[in-house]
Structures are given as C-alpha cells and as structure tokens.
Amino acid sequence: MVTKSDRLNDRELRAWRGFLTMQDDVRRHMNRQLTSEAGISLAEFSILSALRLQPDRPMRVFELVDTLKWEKSRIIHQLSRMVRRGLVERRASEEDGRGTDIALTAEGRGVIDKALPLHIDHIRRLFFDVVTPRQLDMLADLSEAVLENLEGEPFDQ
C-alpha cells in the first residue's frame, strides 16, 4: 500500500520534473551548440576543459573521474574516441611510469580555445540572461545544499 509519504505532492512534483527537464534540455542545447559551432560534443568539451585547467601537466584518468564525476568506463571510452580524433593523447605517466597520463594535443588545445568563448556566450544567453540575481543566488544555494547532502551518500561515483 502506498502512503502519502511514498508520493511527491504537486509542489514537489512540479519542482522535480522542472529540474529534470531543464537539466536535460540545457545539456541537449549545449551539445547542439558545441557540435554545430565548434565541432565537438558536450562530453568532449568537458574533458578538454578539465585538461585545459591543468596547463602545466597532464591528468591521470582517476583525476578526470574525480573532476567530472563520471563513471570511469565512460571516461575511458570517451578518451578513446578523442585519441582517435587527435584531441588528446595518452602518455606513460611522468609521475611513476606505471600509469597513463592524458594530455591535450595541439589540435585539442586549438579546439577548446575556439569552443570556450562560444560556449560561455551560449550559457549567458540561454541561462544567465533569463534569471534575476536573486534567482541565481537561490540556485547556487540550492545546488550547494543538495551537493553537501550527497557527500555522505554511497554510490557517489
């Protein structure tokens, strides 16, 4: 038997469905924009951005997992596609020689340098231009509260 606590009320349902739909639609728009304007997917952009933020050194796969919060297998498959496209390269680890480092290639750096300003402009037009400063602060507070709650949860990776 389903009790009232087993169901979301109308307010909760509206908020939850809106959040999920917004998240999916924003990602879909971002992916289309990056594909048409920069020739890369949102997944490729995410990895290239993470590597670009570490300009002085390559990253290990586990660092990408920690940074992006993706499944390791997803990152490995994505990296394989990106290696074939010449966007990143695998190297023997400079640290210990046992692991593998992932580094931007010159082509990958060029692609992310072109994509970044286009992506930021699109984020502003799609997202920030339609919310008030108060709504933006509320969204930041909400995101931080939920993320803090998730920290102690199992299956966080």
What amount of the residues lies in strands?
5-15%
Which series of helices and strands comes N to C? Answer: HHEHHEEHH
**Ranges with pLDDT <50 over ≥5 residues?**
none
The CATH top-level class label of the domain at 30-134: Mainly Alpha
Radius of gyration (CA) equals: 19 Å
The general outline is: globular
How many E-type strands?
3
CATH superfamily of the domain at 30-134: Winged helix-like DNA-binding domain superfamily/Winged helix DNA-binding domain
- CATH topology descriptor of the domain at 30-134: Arc Repressor Mutant, subunit A
Question: What do these coordinates show?
Answer:
The chain is mainly alpha-helical and 157 residues long. The protein has a domain at 30-134: Winged helix-like DNA-binding domain superfamily/Winged helix DNA-binding domain (Arc Repressor Mutant, subunit A, Orthogonal Bundle), CATH 1.10.10.10. 64% of the residues lie in helices and 8% in strands. The protein is built from six helices and three strands. Strands 1-3-2 form a three-stranded antiparallel sheet. Strand 2 and strand 3 form a beta hairpin. Helix 1 packs across helix 5 (106-126) and helix 2 (42-52) crosses helix 5. The longest helix is centred in the N-terminal third of the chain and has 29 residues, at 10-38. The chain is globular. The two termini are 33 Å apart. The model has no long low-confidence stretch (mean pLDDT 91).
